[in-house]
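**User:** Everyone, produce a chain:

**Assistant:**
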Amino acid sequence: MPEFFSAPAFALWGSPVSWLELVAAVLAVAMVGCNMREIHWGWPLAILSSLLYVAVFAQARIYGDASLQVFFAVVALWGWSQWLRGHRADGSALRVSRLSPRGVALALAACALAWPAVALFLRRFTDTDVPWWDGFSTGLSLVGQFLLGRKFIENWLVWLAVNVVSVGLFIHKGLWLTVGLYAVFAVLSVAGFLAWRTRMHGGAAARA
């Protein structure tokens, strides 16, 4: 990686913010803005931001989140194809919708299983000092990414939980720009939920 990206751009509360972290944060905010508006170009932005954050999180020894960014970059290709050509099981176009009660139960079960599974893996095989925090954000993000790719509105609730916990994690690690970024993400999770709910109701009215 070019030395320029590792160089500090500025400092926040005594901790340096690298150009790498700054560029990754800007791309991530643009990505969420696209997701809120159902603009498919958010997915390639997700790929770029995720690849940059691999290095940011690895340097901070947040290995779960670093590995998660690799997963995000790969899954973003799937999400992009879903938003361009995906459809529901009945063959209808992929539109914003809610999970069925069974889908909600499966999503909650997936979150409940993914969190300890990832945390125990990190505690056993890495030198992270925050396996349970890292495991929570990593495990739930896997579920959130799937729900986002399939345009289920509940993805925003999963991201809200991830972002709130991540704020505490990044405060602990002194990644102050990323603290601010995830605080913004938490607010955007609520805004995204409301925007998709309006879009969903508007689409239902139009089809009626």
About this structure: The first strand starts at residue 8 and ends at 12. The mean pLDDT is 86. Strands lie at 8-12, 15-18.
